[in-house]
Amino acid sequence: MQHPQPGRPAILHVALGPGPGAGLVRRLPAPDALLARACGGRGLAGALLEASLPPSPLSPLSWDDPRAAVCFAPGRLAGCSLPGAGHLAIAFLSPRTGGAAVASLGGGLGDALARAGLAAIVVTGRADHPVGLVVRDDTAALADARELAGRPTPALFDALAAWDAAAGIGPAAWAGSPLATLVADRWHDAGGAGLGLALAAKNFAFLAATGTASPAVADPQALGLAKAAMERLIAASPALAGACGFSRCGTAALVDLLAGRRMLPTDNFRRTFFPQSPAVNAPRLEAAHPARAQACPGCPVGCRRVTADGRLLPDVDGLAHFTALLGLADPELAVAARNRCLDLGLDAPGAAATLACRAEITGHPLSPDRVLELLAAMGAMAGEGRELGRGAAGYAASRGRAGAAMQVKGVELPAFDPRGASGLALSLAVAPSGPDPWQGGCVAHELLRKPVATDRFTFEGKARAVVLGENAVAAAASLGGCALLSLAVGLEEWALALAAVTGQLVTAGDLAVLGARTVRAERGRNARRGLGAADDDLPARFFTEPGTGGDGFDVPPLSRTDFLAARAKYYRLRGCDADGRPVGPEAA
Ligand code: SF4
């Protein structure tokens, strides 16, 4: 299968080390067999990480071992001006999950790297001082980043304004917080699996890129038709483009829906309904803070909402967790806290959930001012922030209250209470890189009731639904696809686009196989690092305590028996043993 990037796609191998140059950068052709098997994006980044690890599961590398790679890979359709196809996949050993994680990063880096002819960047070793990597078309070099290390992320982006796109770590990563993330193009970040800390362990401060080449496209007319089909589906999606869709209110639009479904996590998941939620919903936020849409290249949705003075309005996780989860009906706090996290390079939902965990353990609710103070302390790992900056699991364990940490695989749960949607509960538990509501496709059929509503209070049929949803999201991510767009764009449209670019026949079924292979490979990497069924589980609270019923329905605890049966079926469908470890050939 021909790769769409101009000329022969290359992989940049960056070996960090001691000395004034802090390492070597080599640009080598990407092996055809690797591209054929792993495609690009999520699949390719994971495969390259795998190649950097010793084959024996008896001596797994620590996440901060210099030999462990951090691998960046744009999707195979990045740079082709398709909607939402510019996400960058980043595979790394997670300081939080104990396994290998793959993050998905919005912004312009995926497109810029693809237009520079790169299929991937593999970073190994450790520099003896902070460095960045700058890529301009077919040239790449390490840059001294000592002046930038530890500065708030806005200062980093000001300094990197000459490049088309950039991503970097903030003060939290340099201070050693596992909650540290990677921030891209000011408004995007890479989730809560600890990528910021993994990069700081390599003294890798930033990546900046400009690419000007046009991708090779076998059939431009067919690509135009595929793009038009995608855009039509997005325009017809109420969730993405409706009057209160993501294009108007960002994903914060979901807060009202979660409240109505009585699955808005409140007071550290001790309740699922926040009576003051109408005062802190997205329309209120938009009315108080007029904002414009900020889009990834080619995306008509533009789910990031940015005010005239350059502040990011919180997304669903930021808005819900900095209000309901903390029991604070203060939208101004949510805006301030979300932006403080961005400045510090802290994962916002993880930081908020850690503070909610603290409030439960200490029995002392937090004031808005105290929330902001503690976020600053977490970003500096100073004072009480030294404990809190470890995240909810680390904090709760140090207090002898592990059960108060609402996390899976060490990563704090997002703003979707599992008791309100059984398929979502299963998908949060089994996701290889930590809990993510978008990975299993259940937000669509359980919450939005699209394309066909399913009974959200049963596990019946959900194992298969999660497998299919994960396959679709993983395949799209290997092409560069944003998971949010899976609400409208299916594998049929992605297959049309890939066929147009490569000139080869590609079906939705081919992509589903790619997605299944990608998820199995991720589970295999985790299994070799010791993760098993015990890690694919939810906190006990969700099986023993009900949510907050009302409006004519109850929110009972999840049935432990039904959850375990659904998880066992998920394992069978994935070709895994009873402990969730893949059996048989990896590519089967
Ligand atoms: S929906 Fe949002 S995150 Fe996804 S591609 Fe569009 S702007 Fe980027």
TrEMBL record:
One of its GO terms (molecular function) is electron transfer activity. Gene3D superfamilies: Aldehyde Ferredoxin Oxidoreductase Protein, subunit A, domain 2, Aldehyde Ferredoxin Oxidoreductase Protein, subunit A, domain 3, Aldehyde ferredoxin oxidoreductase, N-terminal domain. Its cofactor is [4Fe-4S] cluster; tungstopterin. Transmembrane segments: none annotated. InterPro entries: Ald_Fedxn_OxRdtase_dom2, Ald_Fedxn_OxRdtase_dom3, Ald_Fedxn_OxRdtase_N, Ald_Fedxn_OxRdtase_N_sf, OxRdtase_Ald_Fedxn_C, Tungsten_al_ferr_oxy-like_C, W-dependent_AOR. It comes from the Bacteria. Residues 8-213 form the Aldehyde ferredoxin oxidoreductase N-terminal domain. PANTHER family: ALDEHYDE FERREDOXIN OXIDOREDUCTASE, TUNGSTEN-CONTAINING ALDEHYDE FERREDOXIN OXIDOREDUCTASE. Belongs to the AOR/FOR family. This is Aldehyde:ferredoxin oxidoreductase. It comes from Desulfovibrio sp. U5L.
